[in-house]
Amino acid sequence: DMPYDGRFAGDPDHVLQRVFGHDGFRGRQEEVVRHVVAGGSGLVLMPTGGGKSLCYQVPALCRPGVGVVVSPLIALMEDQVAALRQQGVAAAALHSDLPEGEARRILGDLHEGALKLLYVSPERLTLEGMLSRLDMLPIAMFAVDEAHCVSQWGHHFRPEYRGLGVLSARFPRTPRLALTATADPRTVEDIRAQLGLAEDPVFRGGFDRPNIRIEARPREQERAQLRTLLRETAGQAGAGIVYCGSRARTEQTAEWLRADGQDALAFHAGMDAGAKRDAHRRFSRGDSVIMCATIAFGMGIDRPDVRWVVHLDLPRSPESWYQEIGRAGRDGLPARALLLYGAGDIALARHRVEESPAAPEQKRIERQRLEAMVAIAEAATCRRALLLRCFGEEPPSDANGVAVPCGNCDVCLAPPSLFDGTVAAQKLLSAVLRTGRRFGVAHVVDVLRGRLTEKVAQFAHDRLPTFGVGKDLSDAAWRGVARQLVAHGALDVAVENHGELVPTEAARPILRGEQKIMLRAEIARPTGPQRSDRV
Ligand code: ADP
Ligand code: ZN
């Protein structure tokens, strides 16, 4: 290894070209770098793949002393260090998995001023012994990567990150740069407060990923829907990811995909470390490999050619969804993100929020996030615009302030038609009430369509006034009405039971005709009746 000799110190452009081999900065990188080189602190919000690393690597090399980088994952640190060493930068990682001799050697190098970048785990950095070592050394800057881990509002809270608040008090003259891909406003404020960055600027990068086509559809027949996507993307080199809501579903999905002849594997937090490593390795090398994973699969995916990401279940927030679909198309080539969801998902997620032991304030936030996600899934306007707004980014708009269609989401490509669904909603809600709120959507649809099934006969539901009043709509359309009523909050699904439909308070004004309700005409209308309790 050729240690970085500091020849270009001080000049970001030189460092960028000579050390990293790039022609120019991207987006807001240059602004951030100049700010930090001049001694400033701040928070960088850039999406995954946005180029956050250079925001601290370049200033660390431009300023005297060592750049100290806090990172939550050993694998991530090791990757970065290996890449830096290849570029001739003296870098090392200090964490708990290191043999003692190795740790001692790194600390020796640190004291001799032989390191330009030191990656360190948060718990290691905040040890008193480590802090007092750093007190004696010239520090170029501190970088806190994955800074959202400091916030309890997020899903990635790490208690070890809380201790990092000490840095601002202990090293008040050293620049501190926090970096994250999570731009949810509350998390952002929390990071700034926790890390003492409240007075420092926030650099918000371009969150739009125009090369990713985003689509959301009701989950009618998930296997057929996934097969369609696979057909449409066949022939393109690269990998795919199927995010599943449970561990069992990752295994089941991988299994049927394999039976289809696909190279599919599963990944979830319940697997042992060896199996996880193996899955990571197979994913990073496979030609057209498909990873069926829970959200545990994420950090450290470095394949630039993930061609598509599918969600089989509703993500819990726009932030999670964005982060997960952002793993597609990092090479800038066209990629796809498909979300499949059902009313059951919405109801289940709502129940989980309500029943979680979280504090009321936290619950309120979780609720808002979930509802924002539901709104995107059910959107009749550009999904990209809705998503970007969740990150505080205003999408381009026309003179009237209406968002300009992005041209690369399903809504913009084929705008759904809306119809006055008040009567349909009334019919469905009254069928639910008249059947005694004890049945799932399949039976309710049978009643509406006037089908004399065994169950209908058994409960004499053919004698109800609502029997057969819904012959004008297809089964799929009725399920669409039910799902949209769930999304609107007028209907609940008893997910802990047998998926019975239960009207809520919000159903009353609709039933009384006091509230009009606009519904999307369902685009996918499978032929023939489909017996399913999926809403
Ligand atoms: P993030 O940490 O924000 O997810 P990275 O720092 O890993 O993103 O950067 C993503 C990719 O973009 C990397 O392959 C990196 O080399 C590349 N990249 C970043 N900045 C530039 C630049 N200015 N010019 C060319 N490539 C860049
Ligand atoms: Zn759009």
From TrEMBL:
<dbReference type="GO" id="GO:0006281">
    <property type="term" value="P:DNA repair"/>
</dbReference>
<dbReference type="Pfam" id="PF09382">
    <property type="entry name" value="RQC"/>
</dbReference>
<dbReference type="Pfam" id="PF00271">
    <property type="entry name" value="Helicase_C"/>
</dbReference>
<keyword id="KW-0067">ATP-binding</keyword>
<keyword id="KW-0479">Metal-binding</keyword>
<comment type="similarity">
    <text>Belongs to the helicase family. RecQ subfamily.</text>
</comment>
<dbReference type="Pfam" id="PF00270">
    <property type="entry name" value="DEAD"/>
</dbReference>
<dbReference type="InterPro" id="IPR004589">
    <property type="entry name" value="DNA_helicase_ATP-dep_RecQ"/>
</dbReference>
<dbReference type="GO" id="GO:0003677">
    <property type="term" value="F:DNA binding"/>
</dbReference>
<dbReference type="InterPro" id="IPR044876">
    <property type="entry name" value="HRDC_dom_sf"/>
</dbReference>
<dbReference type="InterPro" id="IPR010997">
    <property type="entry name" value="HRDC-like_sf"/>
</dbReference>
<dbReference type="InterPro" id="IPR018982">
    <property type="entry name" value="RQC_domain"/>
</dbReference>
<dbReference type="InterPro" id="IPR032284">
    <property type="entry name" value="RecQ_Zn-bd"/>
</dbReference>
<feature type="domain" description="Helicase C-terminal">
    <location>
        <begin position="225"/>
        <end position="371"/>
    </location>
</feature>
<dbReference type="GO" id="GO:0006310">
    <property type="term" value="P:DNA recombination"/>
</dbReference>
<keyword id="KW-0347">Helicase</keyword>
<dbReference type="GO" id="GO:0043590">
    <property type="term" value="C:bacterial nucleoid"/>
</dbReference>
<dbReference type="Pfam" id="PF00570">
    <property type="entry name" value="HRDC"/>
</dbReference>
<dbReference type="GO" id="GO:0009432">
    <property type="term" value="P:SOS response"/>
</dbReference>
<dbReference type="GO" id="GO:0016787">
    <property type="term" value="F:hydrolase activity"/>
</dbReference>
<dbReference type="InterPro" id="IPR011545">
    <property type="entry name" value="DEAD/DEAH_box_helicase_dom"/>
</dbReference>
<dbReference type="GO" id="GO:0005737">
    <property type="term" value="C:cytoplasm"/>
</dbReference>
<dbReference type="GO" id="GO:0043138">
    <property type="term" value="F:3'-5' DNA helicase activity"/>
</dbReference>
<dbReference type="InterPro" id="IPR002121">
    <property type="entry name" value="HRDC_dom"/>
</dbReference>
<keyword id="KW-0378">Hydrolase</keyword>
<protein>
    <recommendedName>
        <fullName>DNA helicase RecQ</fullName>
        <ecNumber>5.6.2.4</ecNumber>
    </recommendedName>
</protein>
<feature type="domain" description="Helicase ATP-binding">
    <location>
        <begin position="33"/>
        <end position="201"/>
    </location>
</feature>
<dbReference type="GO" id="GO:0005524">
    <property type="term" value="F:ATP binding"/>
</dbReference>
<keyword id="KW-0547">Nucleotide-binding</keyword>
<dbReference type="GO" id="GO:0006260">
    <property type="term" value="P:DNA replication"/>
</dbReference>
<keyword id="KW-0227">DNA damage</keyword>
<keyword id="KW-0413">Isomerase</keyword>
<keyword id="KW-0238">DNA-binding</keyword>
<keyword id="KW-0234">DNA repair</keyword>
<dbReference type="InterPro" id="IPR036388">
    <property type="entry name" value="WH-like_DNA-bd_sf"/>
</dbReference>
<dbReference type="InterPro" id="IPR001650">
    <property type="entry name" value="Helicase_C-like"/>
</dbReference>
<dbReference type="GO" id="GO:0030894">
    <property type="term" value="C:replisome"/>
</dbReference>
<dbReference type="Pfam" id="PF16124">
    <property type="entry name" value="RecQ_Zn_bind"/>
</dbReference>
<keyword id="KW-0862">Zinc</keyword>
<dbReference type="InterPro" id="IPR014001">
    <property type="entry name" value="Helicase_ATP-bd"/>
</dbReference>
<keyword id="KW-0233">DNA recombination</keyword>
<dbReference type="GO" id="GO:0009378">
    <property type="term" value="F:four-way junction helicase activity"/>
</dbReference>
